[in-house]
Each structure stands twice: as structure tokens, then as C-alpha cells.
């Protein structure tokens, strides 16, 4: 049985007050809080077991290397049991997409080739492709969501041409909560042998992900949203795509030999991991994945689905509040604006006085904001430790805000 109050007791920050009120943390879409086991793992790694990894033969280096490399298997199992050697450690999805862009796309695309992406994408899955547009002359082709924020895979099929060389999509929108049917998109692309890259930053936190059946070629996750440390993450790359890549960062660990005239590369995945890595951050990510696995990702998903449904019912009672994205089966992520011209920044500031943390702005999704006809929204995003009572506190805070600003 999923005990949310036991879960909450594992997160020390949730016992604090903000502005004299109990903290209601609803900014999980930006970054999640950390359970004590993650904090302890980080403290132990620095305080008792720290050394550089790989090649060191002394005891501390051996311990650090074993703990660090063990996380590769944890990530592989968390994503459905893919091979460990297909997991590359990164600082998060941003580095993951840059690795795909520089390591794979620059080697396999030429001027005039097309990359298809949705207007729901986070800037992490937009800006690297603009780099290629500027520097190589590739073309970006955009697919829009439906009016309710849902995403029809058939719209991808409509824009494919002989020059389409990559489709890259979010698995769950960080603004709308929309869940994209990645398997359906993969079915469309497979007969054309078009690779599919996926931003799993939100989806992997809220729903089980099995890459052995999803049909993608690349899949990025971000540790700080997975209740782990910032500057941690990973990208899964199918072996056949990895074989088509070359490193885009050079340095220690990603080579076997270096001479004055030549170098030879290490085997994947280390071939794509240059320099001293985020050792402790990665160990912390492993602890976070252990924690989520123990709680049960299916249990987390069911708990958040209940919060989503309850929050939707409460939001409907506010006829002066406008939700952006109402697709069926969405994640527990709610972006909204308010009648009367209240700016999202003002809304966020006022509800913060009630102890409620929400995010305001464009959420690194400016093309989506332009598509929706707004400059910014407020966003309340729920996690494994949030409760129905916290939904009620948010609604009360918004009603106060409406009285002041509406």
C-alpha cells in the first residue's frame, strides 16, 4: 500500500515552513526534492568513499568506481532492462540532446535534411537543433498539438518527407502534462528507418518506461527531476545508433591510447564520457532510482493520477482560471492563467505567501507559449509526496490571489 505520509517523512525539506506556512512544494516539474537516502548517499560518497573513478588501484578508488558504475545498471533496469553498455551518463537531458546532436546528427545529416519536432518541446530539445540549422543548414519541421493539448501521432506522418532524418519529441510535456504515444510514433517511423529521439525528463518520473518496447533510438532522462542530484542524468542510445556516432568531447577516460600522431577511443559507453565525471552526483542518482523502485513506479503513477483527477475537479470550480492543456491521461502538471490580466509572476508571488511553491514563466518552452497565445503561465506540478490537502491549499491560495488581482 502506498503511504504518502511515510513518503513525506523521508523528505526533510517538507517539514519546513515558508513565510510562516507549511511548505507546499508544487514545482516538481522544474526540480524535485531529495529524500534523506539520497542526501545520505551524497554525504557518504564525499565523507567516507571519495576518490576519482577508473584506473585507480587503491581501495577508495575501487569503492568509488564500483558505486559509480553500479548506477549504469540501475538506470538500465529503471528504463526496462536495456543493455548497460547503452547507457551514457550525462549532466541531464540538455547534455544528452547535445550529445545526440553533435555525436550522431552532425555525422549523419547534411544541408537540407529535416528534423521533425513538436512545438511542445523544452528548449533542451530545440536549441541543439537550431545549432545544426545555423551551422549545417538542416531544416526544422514543426508539429502542433491539438486544441486540448493532446498530440496525434498521425500529424508526424503528415510532415515526413524523403529528407526527414530525425524525429525528436517529448514523452510528457513539462507545460501541458500531455503524454505522447511514443510507440505509435515509432511504428510510423520504423518502415522509413527514421530514428526517434525522446525527451523523457518528465515521463520517467511519473510513469513506468520500458525502452525495450517503446521503439525509440535515443532517450534522455534528468536526475534532478527523479529526486536525485542536479547535474546528473543519462541518455540511452541504441547500440546501432551509437556505432554511427563519434565523440563530441575529448579528454581523459574516453580514449585508450594517445600519441603525438594518433588516438584510439575507448569502448562505448565510456567513449562518450570525457574527463572526470560527476561521480557523487551519479551515485546520488542511483540512490534516487533505488528509492523510486522501492516505492514502485506503478504506485507513484497511481498516486499522481489520483492527485491529477482531484486537482482537475477543484480547478473546474474556478471559472476565472484557464487551464492550458486538458488532454485525457495527462500527467499531474497544470499550467494556467487568470482572468483580469494578472501576470503569472504576480500570481506566483502571492501564493508563495501562503507557502505554496509554483513556477511562473515560459518554462523553457517559448514556441509552445507562442502557439498558445500567451507570454507565460503559472505551473503547478505534482510529485510522489504531494497530497490532496496540498491541492486544497493551492486552490485556497489562488482564490486569495483572485480576490487581490481579479
Automatic annotation (TrEMBL):
List each copy of the Aminotransferase class V domain by range: 24-394
Say yes or no: keyword tRNA processing present. no
The UniProt GO MF terms for this protein read:
cysteine desulfurase activity; pyridoxal phosphate binding
Record's catalysed reaction(s)? (sulfur carrier)-H + L-cysteine = (sulfur carrier)-SH + L-alanine
Q: Name the EC number(s).
A: 2.8.1.7
State the UniProt keywords alphabetically. Pyridoxal phosphate, Transferase
Span of the secretion signal?
Answer: none
Q: Matching Pfam families, A to Z? A: Aminotran_5 (PF00266)
Tell me which InterPro entries the record gives. Aminotrans_V_dom, Cys_dSase_SufS, PyrdxlP-dep_Trfase, PyrdxlP-dep_Trfase_major, PyrdxlP-dep_Trfase_small
| Top-level taxon of origin | Bacteria
Task: Quote the CDD domains the UniProt record gives.
Answer: SufS_like
Cofactor(s) annotated in UniProt: pyridoxal 5'-phosphate
Task: Tell me the GO BP annotations in alphabetical order.
Answer: cysteine metabolic process
Q: Which family does it belong to?
A: Belongs to the class-V pyridoxal-phosphate-dependent aminotransferase family. Csd subfamily.
The protein, known as: cysteine desulfurase
Taxonomic source organism: Pontivivens nitratireducens
